[in-house]
Design goal:
alpha/beta; 41% helix; globular
Length: 408
């Protein structure tokens, strides 16, 4: 098959979407498929207010992107268009172009882009669900982006996309990275038959996963931003006084350094080989996120390395970390409870190995590249069948009447 991946590279340097795009291309090419990538980038120099306004408006529905996509489809004739993100430089117009040319579209749902104008159900550092279920005006009313112009643009493009069904009507299948995200989409009114789960693939280098006896540290890997809850980990580290190493970078690096006790070391951003060594040298990993995580790659990578993970009970984390079986769960933002669990695992080698072995077994079963490829290929084949009428038309209902989100 000839598969095209399309995505808008975001301004942040620390997201996992690009890793997934690269993984898909590598797996497809290894299996003999022709893989292509279309990308527009939001990175670069700071834009003027006029430029930002223009980009925000074109993100609602970009006719130039539509025509560019039409020309591409006519020239390249792909079997599948696999879309990861369209805002702000493409807009949902590219999805409409694919539908007009009868090319099946899979939309890879990495975050909450379809249910939250701000993508992450976060406002002022706390979870927020005011926009869920067709109430996107709250993004503007609460100035969620910290800029009225930007909040208005985010709110407007979400309203237009929902009202006109720009995603519902033009996407053949949605691929959610976790059951948690699939459930959220269905709760928001997307038909269950149109939403499938494709967990991210992760790999682990061969070698001894266990830290040497009497050595090691407690690790965190990820983006250093407020929603990741690293400040909670720092408070827990101050209580338990155990060695903690933090791998990653992000907008809160300097603030977090100023909060850190002496037993915490910041390593900065590590490459793949360094990350493998980082996981191997740790006794356990902590994932203290305070957001509705879709599928945290760092958590899955640690599990694949046989490391027990202490995670907050939020988002998809309980899906990966079954409490007392594949790791331990703690209440969100409870540094005292986190410190207690860190002490427990640090001092109990038998429990660490038990939980780590179970975590590795789960990751090997659900997150290996062969399972990932088989699930992806089945989705491609189903999308092609649906696009040609092989299974009948995918039902496209009217928007749900203000579905209320469950407490999560």
């Amino acid at each position: 098959m000839k598969i095209v991946q399309l995505y808008n590279q975001q301004r942040s340097l620390f997201g996992g979407e690009e890793t997934v795009v690269a993984t898909i291309r590598r797996v497809l090419e290894r299996k003999g498929h022709q893989a292509m990538t279309l990308m527009r980038s939001s990175r670069g120099a700071e834009r003027s207010f006029v430029s930002k306004a223009s980009i925000a408006l074109s993100g609602i529905y970009n006719p130039f992107a539509y025509r560019e996509m039409e020309r591409f489809l006519e020239t390249e004739r792909p079997d599948i268009v696999h879309v990861h993100s369209v805002y702000p430089n493409y807009s949902p117009s590219v999805l409409a172009a694919c539908r007009a040319h009868r090319v099946p579209v899979l939309f890879h749902v990495h975050c909450h882009i379809l249910t939250c104008p701000n993508w992450y159900h976060l406002r002022d550092g706390k979870t927020c669900e005011r926009c869920f279920g067709g109430h996107e005006q709250w993004c503007l009313l609460t100035n969620c982006r910290g800029s009225l112009a930007e909040s208005a643009a985010y709110s407007l493009r979400s309203v237009v996309a929902r009202k006109l069904g720009l995603f519902r009507h033009n996407v053949t299948l949605f691929l959610a990275v976790s059951q948690f995200l699939r459930d959220r989409l269905i709760l928001a009114g997307y038909p269950p038959a149109q939403v499938e789960v494709l967990r991210n693939a992760v790999t682990a280098d061969a070698g001894n996963a266990h830290a040497p006896a009497g050595a090691g540290y407690i690790g965190f890997a990820g983006r250093l931003s407020h929603e990741k809850g690293v400040d909670t980990l720092l408070a827990a580290a101050r209580v338990c006084a155990l060695p903690v190493k933090i791998a990653g970078d992000g907008p809160e690096m300097e603030r977090l350094r100023s909060l850190a006790p002496p037993n915490v070391e910041f390593l900065g951003r590590l490459d793949r080989e360094q990350m493998s060594s980082f996981y191997r040298g740790s006794r356990l990993i902590v994932s203290p996120s305070r957001s509705f995580e879709g599928f945290p790659l760092a958590t899955a990578e640690a599990m694949m390395m046989g490391k027990p993970v202490i995670a907050n009970c939020i988002g998809a984390l309980p899906e990966l970390i079954e409490d007392g079986v594949r790791g331990l769960l703690v209440p969100t933002d409870d540094h005292t409870a986190l410190a207690g669990r860190m002490n427990l695992l640090w001092n109990n080698e038998r429990l660490r190995q038990q939980l780590g072995s179970a975590a590795k077994a789960w990751a090997e079963k659900h997150c290996n590249e062969e399972v990932f490829y088989a699930t992806l290929l089945a989705a491609y084949e189903r999308a092609r069948s649906l696009a040609t009428g092989g299974e009948g038309k995918v039902p496209v209902p009217e928007p749900a009447a203000d579905p209320m989100p469950q407490s999560l």
